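lol ok so funny story. i was supposed to be doing the assay writeup but got distracted and ended up predicting the structure for this chain instead. priorities right. anyway since i did it might as well share w the group, maybe its usefull for someone
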Amino acid sequence: QSVTINLNPLIEYSFTCGYFLVIELVSFLPVFHLTWESGVLLTNLLLFVVSVLFIFVNTLSMFNNIGQAFNESFFHVSSIMTSTGFAVGDINIYPTTCRILFLMLMLIYLQ
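and the output, tada:
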């Protein structure tokens, strides 16, 4: 579980960079310039951090300690954003606002 937690955001970033690498080969623009100028990477990172913090704050009372709450929220958000389909537990026990956020993330990152 901890390996997946650490690698999921990197996988998301590598897919984004791979996409821009293909665009760079076609249009001869620098990859990182295009990545930061278009705002895709920054938007993804911002949405990831905000989503993890939102889920963490709303589910803090459900877990035994802060570390477990952060671990679960980080894992679920990164799993949904990368569409890997991994799950630690039942998402249906989360508050309704968290489930709505999960649904919105699924629809945003549906590719």
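The longest helix spans residues 2-27. The chain has a mean pLDDT of 74.
back to the writeup now i swear
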